[in-house]
Amino acid sequence: MATATPQPPSKNRNQWLLSLFLFVALLFGAIYTITNPKREEDKLFANAAEVPLSQITKGYNKEQFTKILVKDNKVFAISQDNTAIQSYKETLDSVSTLGWNNPENPTIVEIENREATNLLMAILPDILFLVLIIGGLLWLFRGIARSQSNAMSFGKSRARIADATQVKTRFKDVAGVEEAKEDLEEVVDFLKFPKKYINLGAKIPKGVLLVGAPGTGKTLLARAVAGEAGVPFFSIAGSEFVEMFVGVGASRVRDLFTKAKRNAPCIIFIDEIDAVGRQRGGAGFGGGHDEREQTLNQILTEMDGFEQETNVIVIAATNRPDVLDRALLRPGRFDRRIFIDRPDLEARKKILKVHSKNKKVSSNLNLEQIAKQTVGLTGADLENIMNEAAIFAARRKRKNVVQQDLVDAVEKVTIGPEKKSRKLTEKEKKITAYHELGHAIVGYQCPESDPLHKISIVSRGTALGVTWFLPNEDQYTTCKAKFLDEICGLLGGRAAEEIVFGEITTGASNDIERASQIARDMAMRFGMGDDNLGPVSYGEKQGTMFLGVDPAVSRNFSESIAKEIDSFVLNTLRSEYNRAKGIIEKERKKLDSLAEVLLKKETMSLEEFEKIFVGEKTRNK
Ligand code: ADP
Ligand code: MG
Ligand code: ZN
Fold first, then answer.
1. Ligand 1 center to residue 175 CA distance, Å?
2. Nearest ligand, CA 382
3. Cα(114)–Cα(92) distance, integer angstroms
4. Which residues lie near ion ligand 2 (Cβ < 5 Å)?
5. What is 40-112's CATH topology?
């Protein structure tokens, strides 16, 4: 891939350094010459007696002098006894007209242009100064000229262009999104054999919209389409269209489509199109709104303007299809929408496999186990896990990545890195152990809770300890009982603290926050509140303006409903807290023996937990 302005930055810099060096060298030379101590002769000449010129000529002829020195119109003569006399000559008098050029005469006659040299030396700094100023001005002008040419290219698209041979991504690099790949296979076929479709009178789709959470592989898929079809790939992010000035986006769009048409067949990929493709109209957010609207209009116009023969397909990606302008989704524009889900178990296994290919991994890795532990993670997360595992392996000086590295990487990515350096006091450690075991026991005893996986009292991120439940794979809906069990489990930590230590700590603040949010959602979003709330959705989401900030929820219900919601939340949390306390009190003895082991080992797997909690038997729900 090449960016639009390939400027080797070092060249200019080197030139600049070279001139700086030359300048400094000259300056030193000048200073040295100017401050050079006057020579011996100068002292001699300073108090030389003045004589008529003819006397010097006479002395020359008598060979009285060792040396005659001519400096401009001044003439100095040095005698054998090292005294000097001086005189003046006419400007036009030369050594020969004065007759001082007798080859038999041993007197040295020297013509020195010291004055002139000195003059040069005197004005040298001025010259240098001038040169410096002129150079500086030139440099400035060049900068201005360059920035002007930048302004001129404002309207040019910033698209990165990868030509057909540069796109190395293929469908095999994208794992586990079989349906999306099937749909895109068709697009590849359109690009490769357009005639087949045109002959039958079928319209080739112009736009494909990839919809999916961040990191699910949308960008990767778009590249793979280009790679499979062997066509150039123009990629640009929606936000890159938008600049400070209104109209720039639109002209960039024009430029991009012109370039693309020249390179047809090809793919234009607009990443994060929601940056420009949001619902038009509505409350403005400064001038940026207008600009987006114009840019979007231009995209639509360009797509409408494709003739049937122009084989350019626009692929756009977004994770916010809900905010897209409906005009974008009209037939003839992005009429094909491909949804990319978060990968399921099988897909996660395949993605891990793909990303283990370019790493040195042990041959008996159990990727299935890792896939099971990563419910809800995206392809990007899994790639990150593979990479972290390789880093672990390198740090542990292994030849290849083993299962333990992967397991640690999962924990690091999902919960945060271990903070072994954070030293807890014995008391804090004990409270943490009981708190986490409280979560574990209550969660274990609640039938709808996610299965327990691991307990740890090693600090990670901001958490002092972690009780890890593995979410169930294929659950797309949640029943009320599960919500209640979740709340109960969250409050289990606090319940254990209260029962064991008779006091409560701030360690449970996050649990309480989450439990409250679940209860509030039950009442406001899922119609699971009390009878007098009914199956009604409360609170209205305000459209987001920018940057995917969570929409503010405005109150569209009465004061009395607000009271009902609050009392539902309060009652739910209270009763679940009591339920949690009941469970802990019943299992108090086991809690103590579990805490003893956990404090010693710091982490505890499900097997170790069950060994103490249910004996050798396994859990039967
Ligand atoms: P998006 O554009 O949806 O936010 P990307 O396509 O940029 O996500 O994905 C980020 C990275 O995650 C990719 O470069 C790739 O390495 C990895 N990745 C995501 N999904 C997959 C997948 N299905 N198969 C293989 N790798 C994937
Ligand atoms: Mg992307
Ligand atoms: Zn907790």
1. 9
2. 1
3. 18
4. 219
5. 3.30.720
What CATH code is assigned to 426-613? 1.20.58.760
User: 260 Cβ partners below 8 Å, 6+ apart?
Assistant: 234, 266, 268, 312
Contact 432, 424 (CB under 8 A): yes
What are the pLDDT digits (tens) for 451-499? 999 999 988 877 788 898 888 766 778 899 999 999 999 999 999 999 9
Residue 77 pLDDT more than 70? Answer: yes
Distance CA 322, CA 339 (A): 13
Quick: pLDDT tens for 308-355.
667 888 999 988 877 777 878 777 788 788 999 888 889 999 999 999
Classify burial at 90, counting beta carbons within 10 Å of its beta carbon; exposed 0-12, middle 13-18, buried 19 or more: exposed
Q: Is the pLDDT of residue 361 over 70?
A: yes
Q: What is the pLDDT of residues 610-620, one digit of tens each?
A: 999 987 555 44
**Is 436 a known active-site residue?**
yes
| Residues in contact with ligand 1 (CB, 6 Å cut-off) | 174-177, 212, 214-220, 317, 351, 354, 379-380, 383
Distant-in-sequence contacts of 603-606, Cβ < 8 A, 24+ apart: 603/454, 603/455, 603/456, 603/457, 603/458, 604/454, 604/455, 604/456, 605/453, 605/454, 606/451, 606/452, 606/453, 606/454
- Which segment of 10-19, 88-97, 234-243, 299-308 scores lowest on mean pLDDT? 10-19
Ligand nearest to the CA of 220: 1
Q: Which CATH number fits domain 160-339: 1.10.3130.10, 3.40.50.300, 1.10.10.10, 1.20.1250.20?
A: 3.40.50.300
Report, at the CATH architecture level, how domain 345-414 is classified: Orthogonal Bundle (1.10)
* Domain boundaries of the chain, sorted by first residue: 10-33+129-152, 40-112, 160-339, 345-414, 426-613
Q: How far is the CA of 113 from the centre of ligand 1 (A)?
A: 79
Mean pLDDT, the chain, rounded, equals 82
DSSP string, 336-351: EEEEEPPP-HHHHHHH
What is each CA distance from 605 to 482, 597, 599, in whole angstroms? 23, 11, 13
For the chain, the straight-line distance linking the first and the last C-alpha, in angstroms and rounded, comes to 56
73 vs 405, more confident: 405
The confidence score (pLDDT) of residue 9 equals 45
- The SS3 assignment for 436 reads helix
Tokens of 238: 């929606």
Q: What is the DSSP string of 376-422?
A: T--HHHHHHHHHHHHHHHHHTT-SSB-HHHHHHHHHHHHH--B-TT-
Distance (Å, rounded) from C-alpha 344 to C-alpha 377? 9
- Beta-carbon contacts of 542 under 8 Å, excluding residues fewer than 6 positions away, are 551, 552, 553, 554
Domains 345-414 and 426-613 share a fold: no
pTM of the full structure: 0.67
